[in-house]
Specification:
The structure is a single chain. By secondary structure, the protein is of the alpha/beta class. The chain has two domains: 262 residues, Aldehyde Dehydrogenase, Chain A, domain 1, CATH 3.40.605; 188 residues, Aldehyde Dehydrogenase, Chain A, domain 2 (3-Layer(aba) Sandwich), CATH 3.40.309.10. Helices cover 38% and strands 23% of the residues. The chain is built from 15 helices and 22 strands. Strands 14-15-16-13-12-18-19 form a seven-stranded mixed sheet, sandwiched between helices. Strand 5 and strand 6 form a beta hairpin. Helix 3 crosses helix 4 and helix 3 runs antiparallel to helix 6. The longest helix is centred in the N-terminal third of the chain and has 20 residues. The radius of gyration is 23 Å and the shape is globular. The N and C termini lie far apart (65 Å). The structure holds NADPH dihydro-nicotinamide-adenine-dinucleotide phosphate. NADPH dihydro-nicotinamide-adenine-dinucleotide phosphate binds next to helix 7 and helix 8.
Length: 470
């Protein structure tokens, strides 16, 4: 890569005092650029700078912060091709999907700019006025994953800034460049210290969660890391929003039309090579349609053009990192040994890069690792059922509870079933769509708190009751 990147601390671009680390292009398996590595001291400097900036940022007129978010959206849009190329280089997804990610980042920034924090009048009588206001929490630490790195950074940063907080973000060390660039762009708009970015391998995230100057942590990533963050947050009672793993189930009812639902199911499961928190990760299909639907899904999988994301016409990129690829391989191998049938794919491709074809696995049930554990990659287990109550029981028999879906023509029946799924979002005839005006979050081990919409914005605030004795 031609250009180099710096940390953003207090509005300054600075090198990492710990040197640099290599970032791998998953399409080649080789390093393509060096990323600055921050020391814990630099993380503390970023938090201190955010704390200083918070003093005035929180009191800025609401309309000014709104206008700045709109200006940031313009900046992202004006630099979309550079950002999309960075996302493809470090994350692996096809360029068109990276362009979609940048477009979503722009749309989310604009939608967040348009949100407002309401003041609720609880009582207004002759003797009393009681209002519920919301105040920003302070410095927000944001820790993001490698699957949708730019979009998730925007999901964390924009509501934090909109509601009057300042931010220190630490992107995944596997995909740091797009976020470093994003924060550079944000810094062209906001005062110094309002948005800071520190990058580094192991320990950089912990330096944020351990810092008493951070009042809230917003985290998207794995459940074990979420648990670690929750423990670290206890010392100064940091507020938390945890968006953790999912193992979303879909139930196809007997009245669904396989020809209609198959392409949508495929897209729901394999978007971003299956590396999406709210992807469809287990599919329960009535035995009357089981073989037909499995074959349709396998056929769509065989039609994908697999290759490097920057290559024209590619529809399916690599898995982002070798650990994730090894997990997918291990889960498919285990399923094979348990007697499951791999209908297509099922082995990594030879050559450099972390390529694994879209894989459909049939003839298995709950109790097999591929069904019980989150695969977070390009493989979908399809499980037959005879009785819909059994399908519902199997769908709910999982520690995760991010999303779930029901597919069928009778919407009343589908809706009644969907509302019995133990998860934060229940889709009907769709799966995984998230929208900037709709709160999104998990139940059970998938985390707590919501993102997006007014409810998501309020997560970056503390309620303050103003009680006036007239
Ligand atoms: P992690 O949860 O390990 O990493 C996510 C982010 O947290 C990264 O920025 C990481 O930094 C940081 N981090 C790691 N450990 C700590 C810690 N103790 N304290 C603070 N921050 C920390 O996810 P992985 O990338 O390892 O992916 C593993 C699994 O997580 C996947 O298999 C998938 O199941 C799930 N996942 C879920 C996602 C979702 O959208 N819900 C997204 C990505 C993964 P660093 O880069 O230095 O490791």
């Amino acid at each position: 890569m031609e250009r180099s990147f710096s940390l953003s601390i207090g509005g300054q671009s600075v090198p990492g005092d710990r040197g640099t680390f290599a970032v791998i292009n998953p399409a080649t398996g080789e390093s393509f650029a060096e990323c600055p590595a921050a020391t814990p001291d630099q993380v503390n400097q970023a938090v201190a700078a955010a704390g200083v900036a918070f003093r005035s940022w929180q009191h800025l007129a609401d309309g000014e912060r709104q206008a700045m978010l709109e200006a940031i959206a313009e900046k992202i849009e004006a630099n979309s091709e550079e950002l999309a190329t960075l996302v493809t280089l470090e994350q692996g997804k096809p360029l068109d999907l990276a362009r979609f990610e940048v477009g979503a980042a722009v749309a989310w920034t604009r939608a967040t700019a348009a949100l407002a924090i309401p003041v609720k009048v609880i009582e207004d009588t002759a003797h009393k006025l009681i209002e519920l206001h919301h105040r920003p929490v302070g410095v927000v630490g944001s820790i993001t994953p490698w699957n949708w790195p730019l979009m998730i950074a925007v999901w964390h940063i924009m509501p934090a800034l909109r509601s009057g907080n300042t931010v220190v973000i630490k992107p995944s060390s596997l995909t740091p460049f797009n976020t470093l660039r994003l924060v550079e762009l944000i810094n062209e708009v906001v005062p110094p210290g309002v948005a800071n970015c520190v990058t580094g391998e192991g320990g950089t995230g912990r330096a944020i969660t351990a810092n008493p100057g951070v009042q809230k942590v917003v985290f998207t990533g794995s459940t074990p890391t979420g648990q670690d963050i929750m423990r670290a947050a206890a010392d100064n009672l940091k507020r938390l929003t945890l968006e953790l793993g999912g193992n979303d189930a879909g139930i196809v009812l007997p009245d669904a039309d396989p020809a209609v639902v198959a392409p949508k199911l495929f897209q729901s499961a394999f978007l971003n090579m299956g590396q999406t928190c709210a992807a469809l990760k287990r599919l329960y299909v009535h035995e009357s349609q089981y073989d037909d639907l499995c074959e349709r899904l396998a056929q769509i999988a065989r039609e994908q053009k697999i290759g490097p994301g920057l290559e024209a016409g590619v529809t399916f990129g690599p898995v982002q990192n070798p650990e994730q690829l090894a997990l997918v391989e291990a889960l498919v191998e285990d399923a094979r040994q348990q007697g499951a049938k791999v209908l297509c794919g099922g082995a990594r491709l030879n050559g450099s890069g972390y390529f694994y074809p879209p894989t459909i696995v049939a003839g298995l049930s709950n109790g097999v690792r591929l069904v019980d554990e989150e695969q977070f990659g390009p493989v979908l287990p399809v499980i037959p059922y005879a009785d819909v109550e059994d399908a519902l029981r199997m769908a709910n028999d999982n520690p995760n509870g991010l999303g779930g879906s029901v597919w069928g023509k009778d919407l009343t029946r589908a809706r009644a079933l969907a509302q019995r799924l133990e998860c934060g979002t229940a889709w009907i005839n769709g799966h995984g769509e998230v929208l900037p005006h709709c709160p999104f979050g998990g139940h059970k081990m998938s985390g707590f708190g919501v993102e997006f919409g007014e409810e998501g914005l309020l997560e970056y605030t503390n309620p303050q009751l103003v009680h006036v004795c007239k």
